[in-house]
């Protein structure tokens, strides 16, 4: 079962992927319509596709409405250049803390799609979710465990915004892990376009 901090992925510190050049770390598999990790074979110095991996880019954003003072949420989920699994979505309502919510909604939908992909591709055992949000990485690798023990409250006893949605995601991550699929979060700079 996943433990605190075990949900973070950094290829630069990974024994398996640290020697793979950044520009070759992710490859699009046109047969599956999915992006997957590649690694450098130390013996032959060739790139090998890791067919048991899946890389998904997940990000959210918000559009501020000056007349209401609230924001509209949109997000995108990207599995590859022409992947049939890609998704861009706008939520119909306006929300407070919309930028934060957009990233959580993106992750929720990304995990829903990942579970559909796993039904078609049971060979996938490692899922890497790339996000430019350090907050999302920390939330689901460290903070969520604390929030769960405090029943959705911060250390100051304040309600955590969108806690029920976070808890659903957390439980999905645990369920996937219990079924042999390890999901990790991979932070990339926000100014870097997904491969």
Structural commentary:
With 195 residues, the protein is of the alpha/beta class. It contains three helices and eight strands; from the N terminus they run ββββββαβααβ. The protein has a five-stranded mixed beta sheet. A three-stranded antiparallel beta sheet has the order 1-2-3, with no helix packed on it. Helix 1 runs parallel beside helix 3 and helix 2 (134-149) crosses helix 3. The longest helix has 23 residues, at 98-120.
* Rg over C-alpha atoms, rounded to the nearest angstrom: 17 Å
Shape: globular
- Strand runs, count: 8
Would you identify the regions where 5 or more consecutive residues have pLDDT less than 50? none
The side-by-side strand order for the widest beta sheet comes to: 6-5-4-7-8
Total of helices: 3
- Mean of pLDDT: 87
Structural class of the helices, strands and pairings?
A: alpha/beta
The largest sheet, given as strand count, sense and whether it forms a barrel, is: 5 strands, mixed
What's the order of the H and E elements? EEEEEEHEHHE
Summarize the structure.
By secondary structure, the protein is of the alpha/beta class.
